[in-house]
Amino acid sequence: MKILSRIVIFGASACLSFAAFAQDEEESYIYVTYFNCDVTQQDRADEIVDEVDKPIYDAAVKDGTIDGWGWLAHHTGGKWRRARYHAAGSVEELIAALESIGEQQEEEEDESEEFGKICNSHDDYIWRSVAGSGGDILAVPRGKVGLSAYYVCDTREGAADEIVKSVFAPVYEEHIGAGKLTSWGWAEHIVGGKYRRLATMTAEDWPALFAARASILEAGQDSELGDQFGEICGSHSDYLWEIRYENP
User: Kind and range of the H or E element at 62?
Assistant: First the structure.
């Protein structure tokens, strides 16, 4: 088995390959809402985000309420059609921002109601960045497209983190650069559903993303640690995302 075959599908998520919003000595947390939307109306949901949410979130970044935010559109993958995230230095700051921004969104009653009808269910996660091209913060800068892998892991997930940091990270770092990857990241579950780890990878376009992915696979080699990682985080769900909005 090739050492990187288990985690080569790093993606952009909200979490993913998410933007870095803190200094190296600080922690970075991200709150992501994954929406299930009516596919015939999801473009209208994008318009509402542009008209209503974007000014509110941009203002929150400017005044320091949050460190950053973004809106992702589903390209390929499971049931989630859209994802909205915001980042801060602590869980408490994430929740406080969620409440203050929510109050402002509610003032746009008609648009909020319309959005709720289009995207009428969701899943919420809070992630903490563990490793990535930004160090132990969520990777910056990010590309325009990304691939995310959401992992189900057992109780040895901490050991999986160490394998990522010590073995896989150097290989991914070699693939950061012009025409290659823009960012990669690895985040741990804090709050949410069944997925315990999030791997992210972004690039400026799809050809660059998949060329880097193929090169990483080719560079793989047999390793007991690769097998161990696969035993710990034995299943995953993959998504391709288009990064519609992000700030910074």
Answer: helix 54-62
Give the model confidence (pLDDT) of 159-173 as tens digits.
Answer: 999 999 988 889 899
Tokens 């780890």 found at: 197
Report whether 123 contacts 191 (CB < 8 A): no
Tens-place pLDDT, residues 96-109: 999 999 999 988 88
Q: Contact at 8 Å (CB) between 72 and 14?
A: yes
All structural domains of the chain: 29-247 (3.30.70.100)
Which residues lie below 8 Å from residue 47, measured CB to CB, with a gap of 6+? none
**Three-state secondary-structure class, residue 161:** helix
Residue 145 reports pLDDT greater than 70: yes
- 8-state DSSP, 78: S
Kindly state the tokens that stand for 93.
């700051």
The predicted-structure confidence for 6-17, as pLDDT tens digits, reads as follows: 444 333 334 443
Both tokens of 174, joined, read 């070699």
Question: How does DSSP classify residue 82?
Answer: E
**Residue 79 is which amino acid?**
K
Look up residue 49 and give its two tokens.
């985000």
Global confidence as pTM:
0.88
Residues 6+ apart with CB under 8 A from 224: none
Whole-angstrom CA distances from 170 to 69, 162, 176, 205, 230 are 28, 13, 10, 23, 19
Residue 191 to residue 207: CA distance in whole angstroms: 34
Using the structure block, give the residue that is written with the tokens 């809402």. 33
Phi and psi of 236, rounded to 5°?
-160, 165
